[in-house]
Amino acid sequence: MQFLRSFYIHNTFFRYLAVLSACFIISYWLPVLYPIAWVLTLLLVGLFLFDTYLMYSMKGIAGRRKLPQKLSNSDLNPILIEFTSNYPFKAYVSLIDELPAQFQKRDFEYKTDLIKGEKKLFEYTVRPVDRGEYVFGNLNIFASSPLKIVRRRYVFQKDQMVPVYPSIIQMQQYDFLAISNKLTLFGLKKIRRIGHTQEFEQIKEYVQGDDIRTVNWKATAKQHQLMVNQFQDEKAQPIYSIIDTGRVMKMPFNELKLLDYAINSTLAFSNVALKRNDKTGLVSFSKNIETHVPAVQKLAHLNTILEKLYNITTEFTDSDFGLLYAHIKRKINHRSLLLLYTNFEHISSLKRQLPFLLAIAKKHVLVVIFFENSELEELISADAENLQTIYHKTIAEKFSLEKKLMQRELQQYGIQTILTKPEQLTINTINKYLEIKARGLL
To answer: How far is Cα 54 from Cα 150, in angstroms, rounded to an integer?
Structure first.
């Protein structure tokens, strides 16, 4: 049975059969061709047996698939396949990797040829858009000799499971920028301090724009030029990412749900905040408080946040902001920066939750993060070619205007807001964090 499972006929063999069939048919009118057709048939049978012997006389192909320990959601993840040939002749190889069902890709094939002892590497990328367990099936390698009559199937590494976590690649990207202080390379603002905290850093020469209230008169007298005290951001401040897991976060953009955009942003932002010596925590809620991770200032704490984010899911229910307010009042006792990832499609939905948001903002620095509908923006920018398109553009502009009105209304009540496109969420969130720290609002 093992032999039969690995035994395949090459497509070229059927072409040979087609030629023989044509010879036998033509021999009906040209009898001289009939014995030649039989000779060719016997030759093909001999070559078939000889090719079978060549392919099965040794274990000629070795291969393996190298998977990372974790895949990164919404990113291109490299998968490496390494294979080599021990056949004494040039082997023609067709590689078919059985990808997880989530990718819905059924036409994967890579063809190449190998000489004896040659090792080849083949790399391809996959982009998952859902967290969870992904199972890679068989790594199938079909090998054939230069005769191309028989194909032998080799199977390696059956059913390899790899979990898909929130965007680790994105987190590492911003991690490097935070360490090297090059966050501005990605458009992250460097904001001049308006006030100052009480955490002294150094004395430096006065430059235009420095707060004159920080002039150090003793140092000025010694140096015979204006010297100012420089203060640094207060550290170890508690920061919580609060993720709404209700039905409003189920909406997909570019195949990725709003919830996953929020989760990826939370992971990258938490890493940056920890590297800047702040405490980070996590809360997720819908009808119930599903996750609560207290704010801690330890780099190892990031693994706890990562595992919690991995298990967060959406529900088709409306979220209870009253429950969230009660939970924050009971569990978060110190003044904190709260980043609330949610979405409001209508201004009426905002007004229903506004009393709870105002109550939260009385004690904490609340940042409400919600999303622009990028598909509506594309509709608005498109040319109107008929009356129906005009109606659609008008409705789209109304929804877009409502988003801006919601942002303005929150700001009128002193609540910080971020209205962002989903793909720019992480950058805009870190921007707001740096702005709040620079202005000393926390």
So the answer is: 9
Question: Closest Cα partner for 170 from 77, 69, 38?
Answer: 77
263 to 241, 259, 266, 330: CA distances (angstroms): 9, 6, 5, 24
Structural tokens at position 55:
């392919």
pLDDT in tens, 156-207: 988 899 999 999 988 888 876 555 554 544 455 544 444 455 556 678 888 8
Rounded Cα gap, residues 165 and 15, in angstroms: 48
Q: Which residue has the tokens 């009042």?
A: 329
Alpha helices, H only, 276-313: 301-310
pLDDT at 195: 46
Asked if 384 contacts 215 with a C-beta cutoff of 8 angstroms, the reply is: no
**The domain 1-165 belongs to what CATH superfamily?**
Immunoglobulins (2.60.40.10)
pTM value? 0.81
Residue type for 70, please?
K
Q: How far is 20 from 109, CA to CA, in rounded Å?
A: 30
Distance, in Å, from the CA atom of 268 to the CA atom of 334, rounded to the nearest integer, reads 24
**CATH superfamily, region 168-191+234-439:** von Willebrand factor, type A domain (3.40.50.410)
Q: How far apart are the first and last CA of the chain?
A: 71
Residue 242 phi/psi, 5-degree rounding, is: -110, 120
Burial 423-437, CB ≥16 within 10 A → b, else e: ebbbbbbbbbbbebb
Chain position carrying tokens 């094939």: 109
The domain spans of the chain are 1-165, 168-191+234-439, 200-231
**Of 182, 228, 188, 189, nearest in space to 205 by CA:** 228
Q: Residue for token digits 């940056």?
A: 272
Strands 238-244 and 289-296: unpaired
Look at the block and give the residue holding tokens 């997720």: 284
Round to whole Å and give the CA distance between 241 and 280.
8
How many angstroms separate the CA atoms of 254 and 83, rounded? 35
- Which residue, among 64, 65, 66, 63, has the nearest Cα to 85 in the 3D structure? 63
Strand partners of residue 366: 338
Compute the distance between CA of residue 240 and CA of residue 282 in angstroms, rounded to an integer. Answer: 5
**Nearest 5°: CA angle at 273, between 272 and 275?**
65
Question: Average pLDDT of the chain?
Answer: 87
> Which class for 316: exposed (0-12), middle (13-18), buried (19 or more C-beta within 10 A)?
exposed
